[in-house]
């Protein structure tokens, strides 16, 4: 199912290979992230989903293959041009904690102060708008330590969209959130995607939450794309690997164990006994 043709690609990954030391993370992978839609990237732990986001953002370079973002190969750009292009991307990484010594408003203002020449009044207006869009305008003066986990994630989201990005990448946005916060985040991601015509990519283990808003789904395992297509198609897929993943079954075609060369079974590449 690799290399599904999708009209209006915002990100096109073509024949991507990438290794970390001896470990082949991506083996000739092609996939598409459609423009203006929400794409969910799913797959077992350690497959390389975060790595894929870092490759798309050109924080890492492919060993071979190409990644085009809005038609541009970011990996070939000069540092200055790459810096400009990165401003069009918002990233909400798991590790993207708020600055603890800055208020909520100062956190959201930070990218605007770093990357624009806007005056303080304009910055304040944008900060208010962004906080309003995540329902936290009233929290602008609070410090991160005064926020719940769900509120902190929403502030981080307001910061990620401060520069009006065309592409927003969310790495495990729902992790550690209670069901209510998860529901709020799901709605927010969908709302932001639709209202600002953003292209969104969600990397997540939360199958139900991701599938509830995804238009396009890509399931990765063992260095390959095991399934890619419309969310509806994937949900009804009869492919055993897809079913194993969507149903959270520990045993199936996708190995549970991290590859261990010392006990690998001949003929089963990347699978341990
Ligand atoms: N900086 C690094 N140096 C070496 N190996 C790394 C580095 N970062 C990640 N890896 C390895 O690359 C592989 C893919 O990691 P990645 O974080 O992309 O997986 P993931 O699918 O996002 O996992 P999870 O769902 O558990 O977050 C893992 O085997 C990991 O150990």
Automatic annotation (TrEMBL):
Residues 249-273 are annotated as: Disordered. CDD domains: ABC_Org_Solvent_Resistant (cd03261). The keyword Chaperone does not apply. Residues 11-247 form the ABC transporter domain. Keywords: ATP-binding, Nucleotide-binding, Transport. InterPro entries: AAA+_ATPase, ABC_transporter-like_ATP-bd, ABC_transporter-like_CS, P-loop_NTPase. GO terms for molecular function: ATP binding; ATP hydrolysis activity. The keyword Zinc does not apply. It comes from the Bacteria. Pfam families: ABC_tran (PF00005). This is ATP-binding cassette domain-containing protein.
